[in-house]
Specification:
By secondary structure, the protein is α+β, with helices and mostly antiparallel strands. Helix content is 46%, strand content 19%. The chain binds protoporphyrin IX containing FE (HEM) and 2-acetamido-2-deoxy-beta-D-glucopyranose (4 copies).
Length: 415
């Protein structure tokens, strides 16, 4: 009986010893999230009675990596990590997002980097953020967010306010901030062994690949189609096939639809980024002005056509000044087309497209412009003789002959 008690006591003791040894190693005030999908480790340590967050991040190189100290983008203090200008260290930029838009650099949060390296396509950084901590609980499931930029176009700058493009993916996670609270600081984080295990943290739901970041591409493609394919067809149907004005009405309407869709996508994109939210870039201003001008040009074409039609109906020559109207309509329409071709280039430049793409586009645009110019000019020359009789048909033939259903309107005006 006594020996049994002794044995049980011994076992209990050794169990306690084991448990305490175990305790000793896990009791460090750190919570760590490891994502195998991203091969990313994020650890925090929280000094008591302080608004500081000591952090450690190790991650493969993305164009940027972000951690937000809240459950949603909106209202979240964030840290964005990207390679420094020399590519050898990590820039840590404290930011604040007011919605699902590019977070702005926010100097009310201060970051001190204790150590950072970029090595063999991986970065590791340890530091302290003052002011990143907004929560005031000891929750074991405090919500956080993470997001990563593209696995290409790597940012490499010391600029804390550098432009970043929308994420390629994002996720939500929770951390045990109670476990992470205690002394140690960055020195302790630096001394941690590399780990591929979460401890006091886990992903909340799956990581989401972001499909919302193709708006810029769609905007560019739609605008390129509108100006390089639809507009030339429109100019040529107006010039060459003026006997079938319906065809030109269709191409004009299609073009306007393309331009409006492209503009819609552009406006949606503009909302997302700090640089574009104020509509102050040359690309945005020119683009909007061009579309407004095109509408005015279309109206001008319709008015001109109505004047000519009603004059013909009465068996009179159109008033002399209406010719000017037609000229303005034609030449402004052409000018707007050229401005749009140039503006596409500005857009590519603004989107930081590769110079190969920009030069390729410039060559293509110039080629289309010259080709259309030549074809249009030869049409002009071939129809020189019969132009007088066809004067009326020349009205509103240009680029923006939108909603100028020539025949119906002509008749309508005649009644
Ligand atoms: C230029 C920068 C950014 C833009 C334009 C942007 C935009 C957006 C948009 C439009 C959404 C809606 C969902 C979608 O379209 O896929 C979204 C969701 C989300 N973003 Fe961002 N984001 C940016 C940066 C960040 C950063 C730095 C983080 C994290 C540190 C982040 C974390 C999230 C999360 C977690 C969601 C899911 C919805 C939520 O919880 O709010 N984003 N973002
Ligand atoms: C427990 O931790 C202390 C300091 O953190 C260390 O000196 C000691 O050796 C550890 N004990 C064990 C059993 O690991
Ligand atoms: C800066 O961040 C703090 C939170 O850390 C936020 O309360 C404040 O509104 C932000 N300022 C701006 C201008 O966004
Ligand atoms: C560099 O990275 C590659 C692939 O990620 C890995 O195979 C290699 O061992 C790494 N080299 C060093 C020195 O860490
Ligand atoms: C969280 O826990 C720490 C120590 O465990 C304590 O000092 C602090 O007051 C607690 N904070 C809250 C908001 O409960």
């Amino acid at each position: 009986m006594a020996s049994r008690t002794l044995l049980a006591g011994l076992m209990l003791c050794s169990f306690w010893a084991l448990a305490r040894a175990d305790d000793n190693t896990t009791k460090k005030p750190v919570s760590t999230l490891y994502s195998d999908k991203l091969d990313t480790t994020f650890s925090i340590n929280l000094p008591e009675n302080s608004g500081d967050v000591n952090f450690f991040l190790s991650s493969p190189l993305f164009s940027w990596f972000g951690v937000g100290f809240s459950s949603t983008m909106a209202g979240s203090p964030m840290l964005l990590f990207y390679a420094s200008a020399d590519g050898k260290a990590v820039t840590v930029s404290p930011r604040y997002a007011t919605g699902e838009t590019e977070p702005a650099y926010n100097s009310t949060m201060r970051v001190a980097v204790a150590a950072s390296t970029v090595n063999n396509g991986t970065f590791a950084v340890t530091g302290t953020c003052s002011g990143c901590r907004q929560w005031s609980s000891n929750s074991t499931t405090q919500p956080f967010i993470l997001a990563w930029g593209a696995d290409a176009d790597f940012l490499s700058t010391n600029d804390l306010a550098a432009r970043v493009k929308q994420h390629s993916g994002y996720g939500h996670f929770v951390m045990d901030v109670k476990q992470a609270t205690g002394p140690g600081g960055t020195a302790m984080l630096l001394a941690l062994d590399a780990t591929k295990n979460s401890d006091g943290a886990h992903l909340d739901g799956d990581l989401q690949a972001d499909t919302g970041n193709h708006g810029g591409l769609a905007h560019g493609v739609v605008m390129a189609l509108a100006t390089l394919v639809v507009a030339p067809i429109d100019v040529l149907t107006a010039g060459a096939l003026r006997r079938w004005p319906v065809l030109n009405i269709i191409t004009s309407t299609v073009m306007m639809a393309f331009l409006l869709a492209g503009m819609g996508l552009g406006i949606q994109m503009s909302r997302l980024y700090i640089a574009t939210q104020q509509y102050r870039t040359a690309h945005q201003i020119l683009g909007l002005l061009a579309i407004v001008a095109l509408f005015l040009v279309a109206v001008l074409g319709v008015v001109y056509r109505l004047i000519v039609k009603s004059a013909t109906k009465r068996g009179q020559q159109p008033p002399e000044k209406s010719g000017l109207l037609g000229k303005v309509h034609r030449w402004v329409g052409r000018a707007v087309w050229v401005i749009m071709l140039v503006n596409n280039g500005l857009g590519l430049q603004f989107a930081e497209a590769s110079s190969t793409l920009i030069i390729g586009y410039a060559v293509l645009a110039a080629g289309v412009l010259i080709l259309v110019g030549l074809i249009r000019w030869s049409i002009y020359c071939c129809t020189r003789h019969s132009r007088e009789e066809l004067e009326e048909d020349k009205a509103g033939i240009e680029l923006a002959q939108l909603y100028a259903p020539s025949h119906h309107m002509g008749h309508g005006a005649g009644h």
